[in-house]
């Protein structure tokens, strides 16, 4: 049975995701560097995780029973920072310190000084291994928390991803749910041309994972996939989420150049207005 969100929940998620996207654009513009394209493509998935699913509490960010989230594609830090601020872990004003020399919000997530960050990430391919360790620890400690990880599709070109895939299946980590942000683009162009990891669903199935394919911008589809993953026993679940790079900003959508380029001040103003209009539709 498909599990759907209520109209009230859907409306809240639309507002949350738009706020997250607006903050991504603002903080990357202020920093004059960063990765907006893949942050915008992941905003809807993080909105559902943090506002409709995960057991987390900003007042107690180190609670041993909390669900865990690992941003394996660590360069997408703006979407995680914006989500944490939206959830109440960080003051929204701090987002504009992104990549400043004395800021906690560096170009990749850092767990020592930022509440709500469960793993420092940045070297592509390593985050899934860390998520595996958290999931295995949960099983060994008889904890009922769940672990979520977000991977980039270009990140699947890293060999460590496939070692981690074998590990998770071998140890039957059914408390682990991962997402691939399948927007089809990386910094050098289409993933299929740079170093093709395709076909993505079939590869994860071959490595022993339960695989679901969804629209990564459909809140109900994201939520239903998460609920389905919780019913799968004896294997981890990979949710292959088809997304649009730069989602929400027409000038950025499906353009590889926006993988790691900051908007100008003028572009920022235009993009923020576009996102505000999107929220009202």
From TrEMBL:
<dbReference type="InterPro" id="IPR049557">
    <property type="entry name" value="Transketolase_CS"/>
</dbReference>
<comment type="similarity">
    <text>Belongs to the transketolase family.</text>
</comment>
<keyword id="KW-0479">Metal-binding</keyword>
<protein>
    <submittedName>
        <fullName>Transketolase 1</fullName>
        <ecNumber>2.2.1.1</ecNumber>
    </submittedName>
</protein>
<dbReference type="Pfam" id="PF00456">
    <property type="entry name" value="Transketolase_N"/>
</dbReference>
<dbReference type="InterPro" id="IPR029061">
    <property type="entry name" value="THDP-binding"/>
</dbReference>
<feature type="domain" description="Transketolase N-terminal">
    <location>
        <begin position="18"/>
        <end position="268"/>
    </location>
</feature>
<keyword id="KW-0786">Thiamine pyrophosphate</keyword>
<dbReference type="GO" id="GO:0004802">
    <property type="term" value="F:transketolase activity"/>
</dbReference>
<keyword id="KW-0808">Transferase</keyword>
<dbReference type="InterPro" id="IPR005474">
    <property type="entry name" value="Transketolase_N"/>
</dbReference>
